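Intended use. Records such as the Iron export ABC transporter permease subunit FetB entry shown here are meant for training and evaluating sequence-to-structure methods. They are not intended to support clinical decisions.
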Amino acid sequence: MNQHNITNQSLAFALLLVVIALLISQKEKLGLGKDIIWSVSRAVVQLIIVGYVLKTIFNLNNGWLTVLMVLFICINASLNARKRSRNIDNAFIISFIAITAGTTLTLAILVVSGSIEFMPMQVIPISGMIAGNAMVAVGLCYSNLNQRFADNRQKILEMLSLGASIKMASGTLLRESIRAAMIPTVDAAKTVGLVSLPGMMSGLIFAGIDPVKAIKYQIMVTFMLLGTASLSTIIAGYLACRRFYNARAQLKTLS
């Protein structure tokens, strides 16, 4: 198979796509110019740093460093998920518990089943995939909870005044929020191979791996993304829902 090398010239041509996006934002007055430049700059710097860090960790092949890297990924995912938690106290702790629980359980099942080996070259990339997917789902759950509690405030107050428990007053809102947060992951699973060609499967095939084996790996990835996102979102949703009430089971004033 031919070796495909990405040169500086190739990167420069790819950068033209970003320039086009900037020009469109400027012309249409979308106000996205600074965000695009900042996000691209961060991505470049972060990827360069992480690339060298991962190369060092892969060469050392140390179990403790692998665990620390997985923990680092979960912490950063939790910090980003917290940004959508406007009315939720201790959102970082909730996010960390939810994302770490989902990621750890998934990794444990993969390692115990023999699907992957406990080595940094396999554990860290997979941790990034599943924690990143859980981060998006948890963040969407927070957004939906905030919106639904704001829209249904009067209804919740009426239910509480009639003696309903917190669980009864917010049960429907919580279920709807979790369901809405899972839609991107579920839709991605429905259309995998039809709309999107998965990176892992394509990469393995390009590397010369038997397509059947590559497909099995991608099926495994689909299972673990769905499982981790579901578990993390449910944990985060139930823990966050209680934060909309005070110690006396009264609904807090939302910002």
